[in-house]
Amino acid sequence: MYKDNTLTEHLQKYFGFDRFKGQQEEAIRSVLKGDNTFVLMPTGGGKSLIYQLPALLMKGTAIIISPLIALMKNQVDSIRGFQTEDHVAHFLNSSLSKTAIQEVKDDVLTEKTKLLYVAPESLTKEDNIEFLKKINVSFYAIDEAHCISEWGHDFRPEYRRIRPIINEIGESPIIALTATATAKVQHDIQKNLGILNANIFKASFNRANLYYEVRPKVKPEAQIIRFINQNQGKSGIIYCLSRKKVEELAEVLKVNGIKALAYHAGMDAATRSANQDAFLMEDVDIIVATIAFGMGIDKPDVRFVIHYDIPKSLEGYYQETGRSGRDGGEGKCITFYSYKDIQKLEKFMHGKPVAEQEIGKQLLLDTVSYAESAICRRIILLHYFGETYAEENCGNCDNCLNPKEQIEATDELLTGLNAINEVKGKYKAEHITDILVGKKTAAVKSFKHYELESFGTGADQDEKFWSAVFRQAMIAGYINKEIENYGLLKVTEKGDAFLENPDTFMLVRNHNYDDDDSDSITGGAPTGATGGDPELFAMLKDLRKRKAQKLNLPPFVIFQDPSLADMSLQYPIDLEELQKIQGVGQGKAKRYGKDFVELIKKYVEENEIERPQDLVVRSVANKSKLKVFIIQSIDRKIAFEDIADSQGIEVKDILTEVEAIVNSGTRLNIDYYINDVLDEDHQDEIFEYFREAKNDSLEDALEELGEDEYSEDDIRLMRIKFISDLGN
Fold first, then answer.
1. Which domains does the chain have, with CATH numbers?
2. Which member of 426, 556, 569, 604 lies 3.0 to 4.6 Å from 532 by CB, making a disulfide possible if both were Cys?
3. Is 0.70 topped by the overall pTM?
């Protein structure tokens, strides 16, 4: 329907972007073809554009079902910002007066409105259903679709009524969009919406820079103190499940000379806010918190996340560990595990509705499987989110760096598979384990499963052993948990083939977590190292923070982390040498460098450091022909498009060159160009964002400011202006 260049032209025309991100284009084409579509992309991945652009291009009105009234208003304001008329987008919810509702309906009926946002509660009202029956619906988009699933982390019962109402209004293609969904949640969404045939677009869940480790929970305070002392000056978050433990642990750390503060929902808002700010501004290194802390934290250099208590679900674990290493640098994720904690969590569920208890129990079982397994942590974690990890050894988790003992277990796997088949795949792992070890539980007696051939055939091993067999067989693809009835084990085609023609099956012997008496964290290979000399790097960061506070500037404006890391590796002791450091040019060296080279010179002399004979020369802002041409063209106020055309390159390449020039300390005035592409209000908003921001990440800026409101190039331009005006 739309040729490649035509769709990009529409993107440019309606939203000002010159290219699509990730799988956006493929997903949009799926919608334009009229196919049901499932979109799973992380926050900031550009999900909203996937329904906004097709809505503007297709005939009729798209119905966007969104859970929050405030969110709905923001989305409508955002889409209106790209258009000349307000009536292109409306919302219909309980916050509107009768007059306003009538105005919305009039615009929709006269086909002026392309996107109509509706809360699920509003969708169920009879008069709204009758009204929507009268309009031509281009498609239905269900935002935050994980709310449909009881297995999702934000279940909304009214979301499960969406499909019957769609049937009543009139069928059209459906798009489901979410930023977080396991395979189970995804299937639940698709099944409930009746879109099992949907085209699926997923972004990867793999965070290659994160190191995962699970440690026995023996003397955890001693282990944590030792780990923090080994990682001095680095930012970290420690999660505990209870407020009481948060406060206790924060006090223990303080008594041991560690700069730490507590954070939980029971504290007054002012204290909570002050503690969060202290962490972001590097006044303290550690925050001890409940899971209330972390939503929207834009600190890119959190170097470790420690779980004092095992989380209730792998989904929660993934989100919380994901707050580490957001800049792509080092991120260690250490979790303390004791099966006693699992038993405590199970007790907390008593008294809740049976269905909720069942779900909670299954989520805990997945967490136990992760914690106790000796398989690569990444394989298990990505498998949980329905993603295959191709490598056998990730090289960045405890199980891969310190492999555990493997034993031949082909006969045991055959025994387990036969037991699953004998009960026709209708029972869970615990029940099958009871059959194998010959345990006459009430359920085994009730179903007379003590009469089965499999009964007692695995009695030479204990329950933990069989639990490991089933877990590892699941990862290997011989069995799976049936999605329809979560938790029931079934033998796969691969498992059937194994039964007919057995191959070698190696079982990794599990670590006995409850008997370990070690008191230190081994840690993993550092990824994205923070610098050559950790002590000097910490001193440089401290100097940068003091200078930033004095000048009232964000630290990254002075020198970015990679520059400090390079200084701690190369030991520059004068301004000329400093200019050869990554990301430091003549302007920056002259403006900020004096204190830094003096500190380094003193450190080198006091510690009798032998410096590298030849500093690595980096020409970040050497005055090459292209750079000279760009500087001259900007002085003559020539548009970036014309500069790019004359050199046969793209505007993005010009921006990259200009960034390098400005980051090296040269001041450029690009106001003439910015004024042509951005109005004054938008300029002020982005400029103020960077004035308050804790980092200069484009992704974070887009997420905060709204990628429907601004393009990546808009943010880049204003970041250049900000660095040039305030930093140079």
1. 4-202 (3.40.50.300), 210-401 (3.40.50.300), 406-509 (1.10.10.10), 534-606 (1.10.150.80), 625-727 (1.10.10.1390)
2. 569
3. no
